[in-house]
Design a protein that fits this description.
Blueprint lengths: L9 H16 L6 H24 L2 H27 L5 H24 L8
Helix pairs in contact: 1-2, 1-4, 2-3, 3-4
Length: about 120
Amino acid sequence: MGYNACEGLEVWKRTCQLAVRVYKSLEDCKDFGLKNQMTRASVSVASNIAEGAERGSAPDYKRFLSMAKGSAAELRTQLHIGKAVGLVEEAAASKMVAELEEISAMLQGLANSLNQNTLKT
């Protein structure tokens, strides 16, 4: 079987791009607590996809995809809060929330497609 790197996954690429957008949108944010939580959650989504892809077993991969989905939900929540308190621009927050909804659906689809016979290591 061939090697299946996370860099080839569209969902991984999109989560990395989203993390960059989160960082840029919070560049001037003075609320370091929320900023820290949001940047950590955004990086966690992509990182969990990568870690799961490297584990070599479908059950491990699914578990890390589930954690990625959890981090995506965490970030969606933080974006709603950030928008409500004026720390994140409404338009930017709405676009990122919509992107996270698509990413969550992609992660679920990927998890559903995994089984021991299709996992490449």
